Amino acid sequence: MAALLHRAGAYARYLAQAIDGLSAPLEPIRALTRHIYGHEMDTPDTMCLAGYRNALARDGEMLPRTKLGAGTSRPQSTRQLARSSSVRHKYGILLHALSSYVRPTQILELGTCLGVSSLYLLLGDKEAKLVSVEGCPHTYAKQRSHWRTLLPAHWARADFHCDTFDNFLENNTIENIDLAYIDGNHTQEATWRYFHRLWPLLSPNGLVVLDDIHWSSGMEKAWNQIKPPTTGMLTLDLWQFGLCMKVAGPESGHVVLKY
Known about the structure:
Elements: H1 2-17, H2 27-38, H3 43-57, E1 62-63, E2 76-77, H4 78-85, H5 89-102, E3 106-110, H6 116-124, E4 129-134, H7 137-150, H8 152-155, E5 158-162, H9 165-171, E6 177-182, H10 188-198, E7 202-211, H11 217-226, E8 233-238, E9 241-246, E10 252-256
Parallel strand pairs: 3-4, 3-6, 4-5, 6-7, 8-10
Antiparallel strand pairs: 1-2, 7-9
């Protein structure tokens, strides 16, 4: 109940502050907003995503779950996990739009789950390469099985890892990240830590997307730590996602956008 009350209050505050991004004071934010508001997925991408979601919805195999961060350790069927933990289509379209806007060479995703968000990101730019990390070995194995069977062309552009996020970031060298998506271990300390590990690794004009920034009081605290004006960074609140844009020069600013 406390969590539901928190989210209701957070959403009311978001609605009270949200503006149309086309009237934002900074041109980089207006340019991104024009792209987001006008973005539509083409028919092949829509059909690909629908087919993958339908395949997950038909999969009733029970999966053990490894508790990581604020997640659950209760076993779930694949279809239940897809329904409860995969990105909603509205925000999947936003990931697709952000990928097509940034035109990334290198995408890093922390939190693969069943690979639905991974697919939105890769479909957004057909030349991008994706590195994605999942902490639960059972979810990781299921996702790999489905991708190899159902999405062989996209499988070739993706590199999936089973590891904790901290361990992966400590033991792998990844530089010049154009687009990073953080969707896992939804705790204040971990979110703050991942962001500050990744921000220096971003390419010029790179983008970090933080998921569920209003999901809990801890996540809001992490977002409030990240968003204060910092030279060379613009932050955008789109309710579910927090965006951190790296920009050249001394610009800084924060905007709450309607989405």
